[in-house]
Specification:
Layout: E1 14-19, H1 25-38, E2 43-55, E3 58-65, E4 71-73, H2 89-104, E5 109-115, H3 117-120, H4 126-134, E6 139-144, H5 148-155, E7 161-162, H6 166-176
Parallel strand pairs: 1-6, 1-7, 2-5, 5-6
Antiparallel strand pairs: 2-3, 3-4
Length: about 190
């Protein structure tokens, strides 16, 4: 799939928190966001938080809107026997709007909950992620290891890859905001 970002004189200021099963990227990002906010950084965007089980191998999917503290439930509660996709299209549209508003607020760091299957297929919040990357704001995105190739194809270039470690994530974000040691090159894989 062709990239959405186009040719840059330099790549966008972004890093992917690449995770696999067993890694808790959401918790690592939440801890990093809390530390960055405590240090006075303005952090906007969306954090994903899983809720209780909704069926075999499924959990409630929620997004925390960092600017307002509002919650958006991404999955439709279809019951324990639901087999197909439970993604709520209306909720995804609300999440996209919240991400666009976060870009307009020009935070020091923008957090994107996921570059997931929907985005890899050309949908989801792909347009909003593109807008965020083109804004010049440092962007932190969670990407499942199995979608890393699609993420880099979307970008048109490799991006720094961060482990699911809150300290490393926070250090990268501080470096992008001009605070602390520049660590982003160290994690380019």
């Amino acid at each position: 799939m062709q990239n959405d970002i186009g040719a840059f004189a330099s790549p966008p200021c972004t890093a992917a928190v690449v995770f696999d099963s067993g890694d808790d990227a959401d918790a690592a990002m939440a801890v990093a966001v809390a530390a960055l906010r405590h240090a006075g950084m303005r952090v906007g965007g969306l954090l994903q938080v899983f809720g209780p089980a909704t069926g075999p191998g499924r959990r409630e999917m929620n997004l925390l809107v960092l600017a307002s503290g509002d919650w958006i439930r991404l999955d439709e509660p279809l019951g324990h026997e639901a087999q197909g996709c439970t993604l709520d299209g209306d909720a995804l549209a609300r999440a996209g709007q919240a991400l666009r508003e976060a870009v307009q607020a020009r935070p020091d760091l923008l957090v994107v909950s996921r570059f997931g299957k929907q985005e890899a297929l050309g949908g989801g919040m792909r347009a909003e992620i593109t807008e965020a990357l083109l804004s010049g704001i440092p962007v932190l995105v969670a990407v499942r290891a199995g979608l890393r190739e699609e993420w880099e194809s979307f970008l048109g270039a490799p991006s720094p890859v961060l482990p699911t470690c809150a300290d490393t994530i926070a250090a990268w974000a501080r470096a992008q905001a001009g605070v602390g040691e520049a660590v982003s090159r160290r994690y380019r894989a």
